[in-house]
Write a structure and sequence with these properties.
It comes from marine sediment metagenome. By secondary structure, the protein is mainly α. The protein is built from 11 helices and no strands.
């Protein structure tokens, strides 16, 4: 049992080191030796868990995306109205991005650069299925604008990354009132004019 926990701890240390180094130095400036050093393991240990650097980054992405979406959908129920469901999901995403900013920053980098392979990117999209299903229902009911899921995400969810970055820089401190205003802007950007 202790050996299993030690193995899990090493893998988690490698994941956390990858997130930290990619966030601070970028994908290309993050060699495996630096990841191993930060994780306090030998470079050879990485290859017990991952095939290569690309595999390490892809699996880190999938793991972080899975945690992100599990958090985002934890209080969502498919029986909610489209508007209420979107509010619940959006506010959970905002909470995750502001509380887990290192993970959110890593996801933003992965989503906005070619460092993740297409197979892993598609796997990451699958984790968003409850939101995509909600939007599909909203389009059918005429509540959500008939835009592609990419457009809906760009206008309603991506602005949270900007807010997270500005808060991390100390440019703004988001309080409950500002988050409510941000939600209202996000909802207004995707709701159909009825």
């Amino acid at each position: 049992m202790a050996a299993l926990q030690k193995s899990i701890d090493k893998r988690n240390a490698l994941i956390n080191a990858t997130i930290d180094l990619v966030n601070n130095d970028g994908f290309h400036a993050t060699p495996m030796s630096k990841i191993a050093k930060m994780a306090c393991v030998s470079p050879a240990t990485i290859y017990i868990y991952f095939e290569n650097k690309q595999d390490l980054v892809n699996k880190t992405y999938i793991e972080v995306k899975s945690n992100y979406t599990a958090y985002a959908f934890a209080t969502y129920d498919e029986s909610m109205s489209v508007e209420k469901g979107f509010e619940v999901i959006w506010k959970r995403i905002a909470e995750f991005k502001l509380k887990e900013s290192a993970h959110a920053m890593f996801l933003a980098q992965c989503d906005n650069t070619p460092m993740i392979d297409e197979e892993s990117r598609q796997e990451g999209i699958k984790h968003l299925q409850p939101l995509l299903d909600l939007w599909s229902r909203g389009k059918k009911e005429g509540i959500i604008k008939p835009l592609s899921d990419y457009m809906l995400y760009a206008y309603s969810i991506n602005p949270l990354s900007f807010l997270m970055i500005t808060q991390n820089r100390g440019s703004v401190k988001l309080d409950a009132k500002e988050l409510d205003q941000a939600y209202d802007a996000a909802w207004s950007s995707i709701k159909a004019c009825i």
